Amino acid sequence: MRILWVKSGPLFPLNTGGRRRTHAMLREISKDHDVTYLAMLPEGQSLVDGENDADYAREKIWIPNCEPAKKSPAFFRALIENFLFSTRPYTLDRYRNSSLANKIAELDASGQFDQIVCDFLTPAINIDCRSLQTPAILFQHNIEAQIWKRLANETRNPLVRIYFRDQFRRMQEAERRLSQEFDGIITVSDEDANFCRNEYGLTNVLGAVPTGVDTEFFSPPSPRRPEKGLIGFLGSMDWLPNIDCVEYFVREIFPQIQQSQPGARFRIIGRDPVPAVRELAKRNSAVEVTGTVDDVRPHLDDCEVLVVPLRSGGGTRIKIFEAMAQGVPVVSTTIGAEGLPVIDGETILISDDSVNFADLTIQILSSEELGRNISTEARAVVLQNNTWGNVAEQFHFLLANLNQDRTVNHRGFVSRSFQSNSRKAAG
């Protein structure tokens, strides 16, 4: 297959779950298919060394994009202008790019591609699906509106809550409308697929592909010798759901753990921690903030347990599978483990109550046998079901079967993929 893969930006450095998922899948897909990667590159930003030569795509095309730096005057001006004069959420408006839209239209008209894949919702604002000749698929890593709704429900600041609710309303409408225009939707979990069908009324949901993990790169040392009492959290620390959850953990859960385990420590592992996250370490000497690290594996090896106390967010948490593959037991909220094929009490421990969450974490810290049993079972599950080869195979299966058994698509006219296949057969 000849695939045009459209994304909002570069993949390197591989410092977010979404980037790692896309990179791993594309490496597998590119072994058997011809991938062209089309993405925006912020003006003034250089590509990380090695990205242009990386093997995740045969060809890479970069479109300049004027994107204000976070918390700069231009950033806040764009936020205000969006709030006052636009009906779309800012996280979509910021990625509007006429040059990218024109390039997509040009490549589509060339007839050289069998599929267009829009990776995440953000680039979709530049794709006019109604005029495309090539079948177009939206790969939804998250249900974006759900993230804003959960953030609004959890924030304490009333002004921030008003803003988040407004962004939720805008995103819900935009996400539903944009999703309807694609020939197919692929999600990262059955829960997200059902949400698209039931809440958005979408009839173009092809199915879900699970999260994967590189089980050779992530592998536990033998023997595993974690630091006594060390609790870890792994994630990008400039992402609002992660910021909320570590603040919640330090405020509501960690003090209970410290009462039972006076030597307990909490290590926040992840890139670009905002000042509010760094402040947590200043207020409590048992809290450590690493900032960006070259390799998360040594930090995971140090931890007796990884906690994922998420209260908002969406999609699936690749960091949980990475911890499981690395042999680290995990305690999570329901939202944290959402969409993952995990079993509470066997491959993970789950609680949404702060007292019980603390108790489960204490149980892991107090029982080497419990932690070993959970981590051993968890690694066996990801080895069997969640290698990137298996995930990419499922993704390709959904692409290859798009509209193969029907001539009229969800928008009510003859499907473009059927027309294309008919032309090939006639030729």
Q: Which terms summarize this structure?
A:
427 residues; alpha/beta; Rossmann fold; 2 domains; seven-stranded parallel beta sheet; six-stranded parallel beta sheet; 13 strands; 43% helix; globular; disordered C terminus
Task: Walk me through what this model shows.
There is one protein chain. The chain has 427 residues and is α/β, with parallel strands linked by helices. It is built from 15 helices and 13 strands. Helix 1 crosses helix 14, helix 8 (240-260) packs across helix 12 and helix 12 packs across helix 13 (368-385). It is globular, with a radius of gyration of 22 Å.
Please outline the helices and strands.
Blueprint: E1 2-7, H1 17-29, E2 34-42, E3 59-65, H2 73-85, H3 90-93, H4 98-109, E4 115-119, E5 136-140, H5 144-154, H6 158-181, E6 184-187, H7 190-198, E7 205-208, E8 230-234, H8 240-260, E9 265-269, H9 275-283, E10 287-291, H10 297-302, E11 305-308, H11 318-325, E12 330-332, E13 349-350, H12 354-366, H13 368-385, H14 388-400, H15 416-426
Parallel strand pairs: 1-2, 1-4, 2-3, 4-5, 5-6, 6-7, 8-9, 8-11, 9-10, 11-12, 12-13
Helix pairs in contact: 1-14, 5-6, 8-12, 12-13
